[in-house]
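May I ask for an example protein's residues together with how it folds?

___
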Amino acid sequence: MKKRLVIVGPVPPPYHGCSVAIEGMLQSGLGNDFEITHLDTTDRRNLNNLGRWDARNIALALGSLLCLAWLSVTKRPAVVYIPISQNAAGFFRDGMMILVGAWLGGAHVVVHLHGSAFERFYRASRAPYRRFVDLAMGRVARGIVLGEGLRGEFHRWLPDARIDVVPNGIALPGLDPGRRASRAGAAFTVVFLGNLLKFKGVTVVIEAAAGVLKRVPTARFRFAGRWTDDPMYRESAEAIRSECMDMVQHSVNPGAFEFLGELDRDRVAALLMESDVLVLPSKDEGLPMVILEAMAAGIPVISSKSVGAIPDVVRDGETGLLVPPGDPEALSAAILRLMEDAPLREAMGKAGRARYEGNYSMSAWTDRLRRALRAGRAAQGSEGTL
């Protein structure tokens, strides 16, 4: 008989790492092992509302808590899976869900961190809130992180044996390097894919592009994503957009920049297949899906050193290049290096594709996730696994 599993979380739209992962779980083969119920926490407003104490978020949180309480009493799930937030408003909801699932339903709660700043968020919180985090995390059976270097995010509450490393996996039809059209004669194209946030490096890319264009005026820089309020820099989407447009207009070739807006999944695949390199010089990340998508498309990745699980995935000098975040000169040099060395670019693309197939496919991701969920009961001393 299958064990009951409640999966808590949003699905797209809007698109972000957590919503895409939940959608992947629901479409995966986990249903072969568990009787799955999805508790949908989707907020169809844009991403500017994430992590805020507003009336709509509070109402959504209360509704989700009541729904989980009802599921806990009526379905008695063996496991409740909760992707947890790294901000006070978001984790208050998540922490209450942990307590409801563990106390009311007696379920084994598995939490999944899709970022890399939970410990930092905890240390920055006030003492009463830290006590709430401690209370909730004390009821967690198992934690999931995106890379080996992120185990420490949970060490305050969980021993290493109860922490699983489950890197993201992706399945985006159309990402087949064998079907890539020849780029011979085409303008060298650099793509930035993700929400247009300063902490993700959008202004750094524009500044680096200005340096590249002084040497190679024909290069193209394409940006796909939504202008979004930046929680790290505390700047509005409109302020970021205005700053970026001003930087573009003062570059040597404003026509080299193209802003495509938020794209549907089919267009994302086509955009990557039309590009030569992906850049994502973020200051704060877990494991961005777009990096895996670029690897699946067979193009090199230029991303950040020592940020989240990025160094676990992007092999510096093998599948791409890693640069210090916030360093436009280093980013410009990395772009020029790949622009001027087509054989290196091709070799990196092939190595990235092979690494994706071996480690970050949907089947690899589902297998790791299945093991983590089945280990939930054993994590708290039960005999055997689910």
